[in-house]
Write a structure and sequence with these properties.
Layout lengths: L4 E12 L2 E12 L3 E5 L6 H8 L7 E6 L2 E2 L9 E4 L11 H11 L4 H14 L15 H13 L5 E5 L7 H16 L3 E6 L2 H4 L4 E6 L2 E6 L1 H8 L4 H7 L6
Parallel strand pairs: 3-8, 3-9, 6-7, 7-8
Antiparallel strand pairs: 1-2, 1-4, 4-5, 9-10
Helix pairs in contact: 3-4, 7-8
The protein binds adenosine-5'-triphosphate.
Length: 242
């Protein structure tokens, strides 16, 4: 494995009971890349990112993250995962939630405090730090989940539809932060079905019915198909509406 290759998915298949949801998936993600998984609802995006994060097992094939065969608990501190459904403790305040995850990641003392301040500032929730999460709106919960995934400055950041329910201004600042992180070497995998977000990724895999139907940078994909938008690219490759 070359050293810039941070995530390698090889011939991965996954079924739930008799339903084959991912078929022979191959993809490579390089250091510092923002890699987008784009596809309609049910295409298999969440299933794939959960396996890359080590939450679920593949039925066959292999997934290597930082050259370690997944799933592997030793990568807990190096991978950040933001799930589509928020994994938060509603009865606790945001700060208590952050402290809980900071403890899991081994963050202590002044470093813990500095990281909490930094991620809460990023998602514009500093003023709500001491509010119980049960009193948060849906969008605030998404922002807190994003803050938690960034807390330990993971080398690999996996975000499942991170900006759903987040307003356009904050969405822009989240993307600016993702760009900044990637420029500093963080490798980012993000699922989306928002076209303008897909355009912000350095490379994309288009996923349809459990298959990757195309991979490349947004520009390459548009050039190859003579399309003016990623939406058009998707349709040209035989994809359904995203
Ligand atoms: N735990 C499960 N048990 C059974 N089927 C599942 C399970 N998880 C996902 N599936 C099925 O796998 C397929 C892919 O689902 P997945 O959530 O990965 O798609 P997705 O592309 O992330 O969709 P969305 O954009 O709506 O989140 C769907 O048909 C879904 O019903």
């Amino acid at each position: 494995m070359n050293t810039s290759l941070k995530v390698q998915v090889t011939n991965v298949c996954k079924s739930f009971e008799n339903n084959l949801v991912l078929q022979n998936i191959n993809l490579d993600v390089n250091e510092g890349e923002i890699f987008g998984l784009l596809g309609p609802s049910g295409a298999g995006k969440t299933t794939l990112v959960k396996m890359i994060a080590g939450i679920n097992n593949a039925d066959s094939g292999t997934i290597r993250v930082l050259n370690v065969l997944m799933p592997n608990l030793s990568l807990l501190k190096k991978v950040g995962f933001m799930a589509q459904s928020n994994a938060l403790y509603g009865e606790l305040t945001a700060l208590e939630n952050l402290d809980f995850f900071a403890a899991i990641y081994g963050l202590r003392g002044s470093i813990r405090k500095a990281r909490i301040d930094s991620v809460m500032d990023l998602v514009k929730l500093t003023e709500n730090l001491r509010k119980p999460v049960s009193q948060y709106s849906g969008g605030m919960k998404r922002r807190l989940s994003l803050a938690i995934s960034l807390l330990h400055e993971p080398e690999i950041l996996i975000l499942d539809e991170p900006t759903v329910g987040i307003d356009p201004v904050l969405r822009q600042s989240v993307w600016n932060e993702l760009k900044r992180l990637s420029e500093n070497g963080t490798t980012i995998i993000v699922t989306t079905h928002v076209m303008d977000e897909a355009e912000k990724c350095e490379r994309l895999a288009l996923l349809q019915d459990g298959h990757i139907i195309a991979t490349g940078s947004p520009e390459e994909l548009k050039e190859k198909t003579n399309a003016s938008s990623i939406e058009e690219v998707f349709l040209q490759y035989g994809g359904a509406d995203v």
